Amino acid sequence: MSDTSHTASEGIPAATVVIFRNGGDGGPPEILMTIRSREMVFAGGMAVFPGGRVDPADFELGAMLGGALEPDEAAHQVAVVRETLEETGLAIGIRGAVDAAKARAARDFLQQTGQLAPVLEHFDWELDLDQLTPFARWFPKNERIPRVYDTRFYLADLGTGAVEIQADLSENTHLFWTTAKGALDAAERGEIKVIFPTRRNLERLAMFNSFAEAKAQAEAIPVRTITPFIGEMDGKSWLHIGEDFGYPVTGEPLETVARG
């Protein structure tokens, strides 16, 4: 990913996606998570959703798409498609003939070019960004963390989930499917580590018994930027996100917060 500089006031534009698949035996849906390499400056060793920063080529392609989406929003969704293919081998947000072999070949091609547009042209694919549902936007510009990302979150659905995934092993070391509650339980047991936004999003995702429920809530609550802030409660400092964003838990004692 390109390393264009951004000030803390505007943040580094990034996009990430919560990919659903049907749960087994009629259970709750599963979501795809990845463990970031410990060498990464941001969220090293943490369990996160696939995604990354928005590259200049994503902005270029987003500006060319036209349609109902603003170019900036389109660029973030392009980044989701590109980063997902790069990090996991999954082709989401794509219209055209897609199978496991083509997805593997497209991933290899993407790793050579670093841009999505040549991949789309080579495989005769088109973007189908209607497959992505805006879910949230987090911008922790008030926090003392190494890099401040302005991150847009999206939802996508694989249905049966009969697909191949493979970590890229450069930025990520492991990919796994889990229910949102399963991820929270694993974090409580110390089996995975999650930063503050990921924990809050997992708590929100654990409310839903299907992708359709998650999509309905996301569409019912307009996406507004969440900027966590510190407040006092019961003599302790807490990190809060405010109300009315659709989250069941809106704060955590500062002493237990995991940051990037």
Descriptive report:
The chain is built from seven helices and 13 strands. By secondary structure, it is an alpha+beta fold. Strands 1, 2, 3, 4, 7, 8, 9 and 10 form an eight-stranded mixed beta sheet that branches. Strands 11-12-13 form a three-stranded antiparallel beta sheet, with no helix packed on it. Helix 1 (56-65) crosses helix 2, helix 3 (100-113) packs antiparallel against helix 4 (116-123) and helix 5 (180-188) crosses helix 6 (196-205). It is globular. The two termini are 18 Å apart.
Throw out a few tags for this protein.
single chain; 260 residues; alpha+beta; eight-stranded mixed β-sheet; three-stranded antiparallel β-sheet; 7 helices; 13 strands; globular; disordered N terminus
What's the topology here?
Elements: E1 12-21, E2 30-36, E3 47-48, E4 51-53, H1 56-65, H2 71-88, E5 94-95, H3 100-113, H4 116-123, E6 126-127, E7 133-138, E8 149-157, E9 172-178, H5 180-188, H6 196-205, H7 211-220, E10 225-226, E11 229-233, E12 236-240, E13 251-253
Parallel strand pairs: 1-8, 7-10
Antiparallel strand pairs: 1-2, 1-4, 2-3, 2-9, 5-6, 7-8, 11-12, 12-13
Give a brief outline of the structure.
By secondary structure, the chain is α+β, with helices and mostly antiparallel strands.
- What percentage of the residues does DSSP assign to strands (E)? 15-25%
Summarize the helix and strand pattern as letters.
Answer: EEEEHHEHHEEEEHHHEEEE
- In total, the number of strands is 13
Q: What is the subunit arrangement here?
A: single chain
Which spans have pLDDT < 50 for at least 5 consecutive residues?
1-8, 39-43
N- to C-terminal distance: 18 Å
Main sheet makeup? 8 strands, mixed
What gyration radius follows from the Cα positions, in whole Å?
Answer: 18 Å
Structural class determined from secondary elements: alpha+beta
Rounded mean pLDDT is: 87
Helix content: 25-40%
The shape, in one word, is: globular
Number of helices: 7
